Amino acid sequence: FRRAHTLTVLFILTCALGYVTLLEETPQDTAYNTKRGIVASILVFLCFGVTQAKDGPFSRPHPAYWRFWLCVSVVYELFLIFILFQTVQDGRQFMKYIDPHLGVPLPERDYGGNCLIYDPGNGTDPFHNVWDKLDGFVPAHFFGWYLKTLMIRDWWMCMIISVMFEFLEYSLEHQLPNFSECWWDHWIMDVILCNGLGIYCGMKTLSWLSLKTYKWQGLWNIPTYKGKMKRIVFQFTPYSWVKFEWKPASSLRRWLAVCGIIFVFLLAELNTFYLKFVLWMPPEHYLVLLRLVFFVNVGGVAMREIYDFMDDPKFHKKLGQQAWLVAAITATEFLIVVKYDPYTLTLSLPFYITQCWILGIILVLTWTAWRFFIRDITLRYKEIRRQKQEHRSEKDKCLSNGDGHSSILDEQNGNKLRERKL
C-alpha cells in the first residue's frame, strides 16, 4: 500500500510539473531553465525519499518529517561535492545562481579593537562598546545553544564545547579577523550570558521532558476541544523520552567516542565561519541561517543514533544513516575550505598558542593513559594482592588449632617419619 501510494504521488507530481511546462512557453534563458530543472528534480527526489526512505529514531511530529531532512542531507552533500570539484573562482561565482548578490568579496569586520567596557573618552555614550556587540547574533547564540543542549542532553559536554570554541577563537584569530573579540565578549557575553543561559534553559526543558508522563490518546477520542488543541500541540513533543548518559570515563571506547563527538561538533562550528569566508557569504545571509536550521534538525537525529549505537551495540549493530551523513557533510565542508583557501589555513599559529595546545594534548593523553591503562593495571595488581592476602589468612586460620599446634604440620611430620622408616 505504501509503495502504491508513493507511485501515485510521484505520478501526480510528474504530471503537474509536465502540465506546467506545457502550458507556458519555455524561456530562452539557459540559466533560468537549468535552475528550474534542478529544482524540479530535487522536488521529485524529496517526494520519493519522504515516502520510501528508512525511518529514523524519531516519530514526532511525523516520521515523514525526519525522512525529509534525511533526503535534504543527501541533496546538500551532493551540492557540496559539486562545489568541491569546481575551481575557486567558478565555485564562488556559482553562488550567484543561488543569489545574484553573492560572489563579491566580503568587507572585513573586527570585533576586537577598543575593549573598554566603560569608555570615559566618549561623553555621549561611555558604554558604546557594549551596545556595539549587542547585535542580532546575541539571541542567535542563546537559541543556538538552547537547541544544542536539547541535542546533546548533557551539561558538562555542552560546557566543554562552549569553552573549547572560545579557545579556538583565541587560537585562530590570526586567520579570521572576526574571531578577534574582547575578553569580556568571549567569557561574559558568550560563555556566561548567551551560551550559559541557553544551556541552563535547555537543561530545564530536558528535566521537564524527562518528568513528563507520556500517555498518548487518539485525537478523536478526546471529548473536549481544549483537550484536542492540547493534543495537537503535544504532537510536536517527543513520543517518548530517553535520557542520555554518556559516561565517558566508564570505558576507553566511550571516552574515544565522546572525544570524537566533541571534535566533529567543533569542526562543524568552525566550518560555519570558514565557509562564509571562502565562499564570500555575509554572516546575515539567509543561506547561513538555512544551514544552521538544517544542522539543528539532522544533528538531533544523528546524536540519538550515536547514543543508541554506543549504549546498546548488540541491538544497534551499525551506526545510523543520518549520523554517517552528518559526518560526511562535515568532512566535505572542511575539504572545501582547504581547497578554496589553503593559504589562510596554513598560517602558522603563534608560538605561545602552539605551546598551550601541545600542553593541553599532553594532559589529555596523560589522563587517558592513567585512567584506562595505568590505573587499571594498578587496581588489578592491588586486587590480586588483596586476594592473595585473604587466601593466606584463610589458610593460616585453617592450619591453626586450639592448643597452638597445626594438625596439617603434624600430618606432614608423620609422613616424613614414615618415609624415613621405609
TrEMBL record:
UniProt-listed Enzyme Commission number(s): 2.7.8.29
Any one biological process term the GO annotation gives: phosphatidylserine biosynthetic process
Keywords: Endoplasmic reticulum, Lipid biosynthesis, Lipid metabolism, Membrane, Phospholipid biosynthesis, Phospholipid metabolism, Transferase, Transmembrane, Transmembrane helix
Record InterPro entries: PSS
A single GO cellular-component term on record: endoplasmic reticulum membrane
Cell location: Endoplasmic reticulum membrane
Spans traversing the lipid bilayer: 6-24, 36-53, 65-85, 155-172, 184-203, 255-274, 286-303, 323-340, 352-373
First-listed, main subcellular location of the protein, grouped into a coarse class: endoplasmic reticulum
Record's function text: Catalyzes a base-exchange reaction in which the polar head group of phosphatidylethanolamine (PE) is replaced by L-serine.
Record's protein name: Phosphatidylserine synthase
Organism of provenance: Chloroceryle aenea (American pygmy kingfisher)
Lineage: Eukaryota, Metazoa, Chordata, Craniata, Vertebrata
Gene name tied to this protein: Ptdss1_0
